[in-house]
Amino acid sequence: MIRLLPVLLLALTACSTAQPPAHEFEDTDPCSLLQSGDAGQMNGSPTRTDRSCDYPFDSLTVRLTLLSAKFADESQKLLSDGGHGAVIDGGQPGESDDRPLTSKCVDASGEVTCDAVVEVRDGQLVGLKVLQRSHDLNVVGQVTQGLAAKAMGRLPR
């Protein structure tokens, strides 16, 4: 039995090193996660600021931010102010990978702002702020969820 121990350790080491390294969340460019056509055509180029990217679509603007935080904490901020929870498909096409999302939308003088946070992995979140001229909170909320799903599908695995 003692003679097998080095062989078993070698086999375990080979198995653990044979897996490809995971892409680092911190290395992801937030401006690579949404594209023209996701919410209309873009009016110009996305603008990156540190871990955020501002997207100027035809009828709305989006700020997408990559966060290192606890989902429960960020979600609670939105829930305590009237937000609600949902689940979106965060997988690649053909995969099922439901991810929790919390969002809150408000209408202020004909402009709806939706804030949302979706959990990528433990401690890794995508935050969205969508601003659109509208009075329909539900429509802008659905657009926000759709954009979150598109961003999740483009995150490197």
Question: Based on CA inertia axes, which overall geometry fits?
Answer: globular
Q: Gap between N and C termini, in Å?
A: 39 Å
The count of helical stretches stands at 3
Mean pLDDT: 84
Strand content: 25-35%
Main sheet characteristics:
7 strands, antiparallel
> How many beta-strand runs?
7
List unreliable stretches of 5+ residues.
4-22
Percent range for helical residues?
A: 25-40%
N-to-C series of helices and strands: HEEEHEEEEH
Give a brief outline of the structure.
The protein is an alpha+beta fold.
Can you describe this structure?
This protein is of the alpha+beta class and 157 residues long. Helices cover 27% and strands 34% of the residues. It has three helices and seven strands, in the order αβββαββββα. A seven-stranded antiparallel sheet has the order 1-2-3-7-6-5-4, sandwiched between helices. It is globular, with a radius of gyration of 19 Å. About 12% of the residues have low confidence.
